[in-house]
Specification:
Layout (H helix, E strand, L loop, with lengths): L2 H6 L3 H4 L12 H12 L6 E4 L6 H12 L2 H7 E4 L7 H13 L9 E5 L7 H13 L4 E7 L7 H5 L2 E4 L5 H15 L5 H11 L3 H15 L4 H8 L4 H13 L3 H15 L3 H12 L6 H19 L4 H18 L7
Parallel strand pairs: 1-4, 1-5, 2-3, 3-4
Helix pairs in contact: 6-7, 10-11, 10-12, 11-12, 13-14, 14-17, 15-16, 16-17
Length: 333
């Protein structure tokens, strides 16, 4: 395989990863602050936290590419991910060795990137705090995690913290359209809405779902996006909700929903999530709404602990049947 072919076969999420801070589509305040740090050669130890796909790793890699030339990069940057062993042995061995060694380059301090740091043990984190203090003159650390609470306070206090919030739709859409144009993807307006709805502000998920749908169907529409990721279609959820609200016979409702689940390969957990979104818009009396939500939440918890989907589907139908007895359904629609 040639170099050109390798580039073509790259996943889009890597192919279009920003190489400069100015290319990032969001978190302008964070980018501006880090740019200022780099301009004044005063980069502190960094701690990036927030949900997946919000640009944490892309931001620090863009920083590294701006700070070092391609020739310097490998000797000046050490990146360890969750897939690497980062127990106390690696902290005292590989990280300590990298941090304590000076280089011949005069490109400022080295950079150690610890991605998915919330997977590190407390012992490894405790061993790390002394290294951070001792070798500050020679190295800068960037700790990246999803959950700030899993990083020990001693490490948090040694770093400048930045929270990466989920991306807004108006930040995702321009980059999405740019990639669609470059790759010649045929996409509809409802396809874009479906990608944004499913992503929840996760740029990585948007691009991976876009590429998967395009490869599978060559036409990115709402139905194709939902089918590609195995998510219930809006029309299927409307049918299920119609049976729950209007079908008086328990056995008929159960059979209809069960048949649809099997035919479309739907998970009851996804159905519960979608139904929850819709019933919040219904004009239900507060007591009834709360009761229904509690029963649905209990079903979701039991599903997560391994309960049978058939039993929980029966419980869901029963919850709506009880709700129908307490209020006239025609008043809700």
């Amino acid at each position: 395989m040639t170099v050109g072919q390798t580039a073509i076969n790259l996943p889009w999420v890597e192919k279009y990863r920003p190489s400069r801070l100015d290319d990032l589509v969001s978190h302008d305040d964070i980018v501006k602050t880090i740019n200022q740090f780099m301009k004044e050669n005063q980069l502190p130890h960094l701690l990036f936290y927030g949900p997946p796909g919000t640009g944490k790793t892309s931001t620090i890699l863009a920083c590294a590419k701006q700070m070092y030339t391609p020739q310097q990069f490998n000797s000046m940057v050490l990146e360890l991910n969750a897939s690497d062993d980062r127990g106390i042995g690696i902290v005292r061995g590989q990280i300590l060795s990298f941090a304590s060694t000076r280089t011949i380059f005069k490109a400022g301090p080295k950079l150690i990137i610890l991605d998915e740091a919330d997977a590190m043990t407390n012992d490894a984190q405790n061993a790390l705090r002394r290294i951070i203090e001792k070798y500050t003159e020679n190295v800068r650390f960037c700790i990246i995690c999803n959950y700030l609470g899993k990083i020990i306070p001693a490490l948090q206090s040694r770093c400048t913290r930045f929270r990466f919030a989920p991306l807004q739709q108006n930040q995702i859409v321009p980059r999405l359209q740019e990639i669609v144009e470059k790759e010649g993807v045929k996409i509809s307006e409802d396809g874009i809405k479906a990608l944004l709805t499913l992503s929840g502000g996760d740029m990585r998920k948007v691009l991976n779902t876009l590429q998967s749908t395009w490869l599978a169907y060559r036409d990115v529409t709402e139905d194709n996006v939902y089918t590609c990721v195995g998510h219930p279609l809006r029309s299927d959820i409307n049918s299920i909700l119609n049976w729950l609200l209007n079908e008086n016979d328990f056995a008929t409702s159960f059979q209809h929903i069960q048949d649809l689940k099997i035919a479309k390969g739907l998970a009851l957990g996804d159905i519960l999530t979608e139904i929850h979104t819709i019933i919040t818009r219904l004009k239900l009396p507060p007591e009834l709404f709360i009761s229904l939500l509690i029963k649905m939440a209990d079903s979701e918890a039991r599903l997560a602990s391994g309960c049978s989907e058939r039993i929980e589907l029966a419980a869901l139908i029963a919850a709506f049947a009880q709700a129908r007895e307490q209020v006239n359904i025609n008043d809700l629609l």
